[in-house]
């Protein structure tokens, strides 16, 4: 019995020892990671990357034809030459109204909602729509016949407000062309004009032509159109009633110039036009300039506003500086015109005699 007592006591002591060892293992603290195994942490805050400023420009244009397209390309070239690159720090949204006046308003409203940094309006109808809708964003215009008459600005020297730009009307261009017709085409007694009277710029051009021709006792017969599809019919209505045709700076008519050229060539009628680009397309003669250069001048205005902080209202309206007679020799042949040495001598730059 005594042996059994000692054995039982021994077993109880052994169990207590084992239990104490187990509790000691569970309570032992876990080994912490060595300093070299912990992720590196910097106490200094990471510098924020500076976001590149992207300038958003909206371009609205009444129709596409070579003169207006050249003005747009000149504008974009000036921006590129001064550090604004599309796809990098420049975003350009170009909208063409397809000759629809109501589209001009929709485009202007879209640009106002998009919060553009600057708007370029090419042509009088497009500029008029933009100026009505946008008063808190810089607006530039180009290829405008009469900025004052179109009520785009109240002063050419100091426009004020948020609008300025360039006009495509050299003060002497129309007068010189009409003087050229009177002096070199003495048999021309009546001139036909096809025009869209809904374009304010066209009305101004026609009025100036009528005043200049009246001084030479040359009459004017007009054919009115409302869209480009009517231009050919308008030109044909003049056949037999006029000795020559003049195409003013009328976007509706210029967009369909080829149909005017067809009528002129078929009926051997000299076709005088309002711009040098239209001479290149097949008109016989015009006093003009390069629309690319006009657009480039407008682009430099944009640079002054976007980069140099100038206010549009402090930038005077610009005009073409160079004016020269341009004649198309192939068109002359097709329209039954004999180009004399006297005519050629009136061209300053030989490049403006287009073979």
Describe the structure.
The chain is α/β, with parallel strands linked by helices and 355 residues long. Helices cover 41% and strands 17% of the residues. The chain contains 13 helices and 12 strands. The strands form 3 sheets. The chain has a 5-stranded parallel β-sheet, with helices on both faces. β3, α4 and β4 form a beta-alpha-beta unit. α2 runs parallel beside α11. The longest helix has 26 residues. The N terminus is likely disordered.
Q: Given the helix and strand composition, which structural class is it?
A: alpha/beta
Could you name the ranges where pLDDT drops below 50 across 5 or more consecutive residues? 1-5, 16-39
Largest sheet: 5 strands, parallel
How would you describe the shape? elongated
How many whole angstroms does the radius of gyration measure? 38 Å
Tally of DSSP helical segments: 13
Helix content: 40-55%
The separation of the N and C termini measures 140 Å
* Proportion of residues in β-strands: 15-25%
- The tally of strands reads 12
Overall pLDDT confidence = 88
Q: SSE order, as H and E?
A: HEHEHEHEEHEHEHEHHEHEHEHHE
Q: Reading side by side through the largest sheet, how are the strands ordered?
A: 2-1-3-4-5
Pfam families: ABC_sub_bind
InterPro entries: ABC_transpt-TYRBP-like, Peripla_BP_I
Organism: Ferviditalea candida
Keywords: Signal
